[in-house]
Amino acid sequence: MLVSRIIPCLLVKDRGLVKSVRFQDHRYVGDPINAVKIFNEKEVDELVILDIDASAEQREPDYQMIANVAQECRMPLCYGGGVRTAEQVQRIIKLGVEKVAVGLAALEVPALVSDAARIVGNQSVVVILDVRKVGGKYEVFTRRGTEGSGKTPVELGKHFESAGAGEIIVNAIDQDGVMEGYDLQLVEEMYEAIHVPLTILGGAGSLEHIRLLLFRFGQLGASAGSLFVYRGKFKAVLINYPTAAEKRSLISQS
């Protein structure tokens, strides 16, 4: 049975924890390992870590960094960044990671998703779709949001679901870091079309935004970055997460 999940998403650049706004203006906010330790104490549902340099620099995943994080992490962990082969997916899973996310490579290497799903299982293969609205229509973008694919997220979501992806992460580029709420129109289009678990990323600035998402759509993943690393209108860096009572209240309404 699917359950609602509240999921911090951490971006790693040069092995440091950063936050962005619409995929630009990266601000250093701390050490990933320290953040993981705090999230352990707060008993988060799941954690997503994305190495945003790996794919852009066309380099292999940083296996030592992944191993360090996985060793410390006491919650289900999803890693993404630089993955281009099913063998890399398998190697990362063997380091103690539960899920591996692919984005650009899923488009460039047609057999990647199906090969990885066959080796490690559908439940461990996640596809990230970075999406923005162009001319009134949603389009999937790659290379840090600079290159359009010409494909809609619904089109690609269905394709990767058929290929064997066990989960789709929908990341709204225009909402990234602005903390003004999720793009609910985008979520609705994906929710009606996709049958594997969905995780929604981009825009959450308050627990109310998460409540609205879960109340409207029910069982899915509500992910956020800024919400869980900033506090207050001046965006002081503070790793945080809903209390157990707050989380029960948010999920009970979904």
Can you give keywords for this protein?
11 helices; eight-stranded parallel β-barrel; TIM Barrel; alpha/beta; 254 residues
Question: How does this model look, in words?
Answer:
There is one protein chain. By secondary structure, the chain is of the alpha/beta class. It has a single domain, classed as TIM Barrel (Alpha-Beta Barrel). β11, α9 and β12 form a beta-alpha-beta unit. The chain is globular.
Strand order of the largest sheet: 1-4-5-6-7-10-11-12
Q: Give me the strand/helix succession.
A: EEEHEHHEHEHHEEEHEHEHEHEEH
- Shape field: globular
CATH architecture tag: Alpha-Beta Barrel
**CATH topology type:** TIM Barrel
| Fraction in helix | 25-40%
What's the tally of helices?
11
What's the rounded overall pLDDT mean? 94
Task: Write down the Rg.
Answer: 17 Å
- What are the segments in which pLDDT stays under 50 over at least 5 consecutive residues? none
How would you name the CATH homologous superfamily?
Answer: Aldolase class I
Distance between the termini: 14 Å
Compact description:
This protein is an alpha/beta fold and 254 residues long.
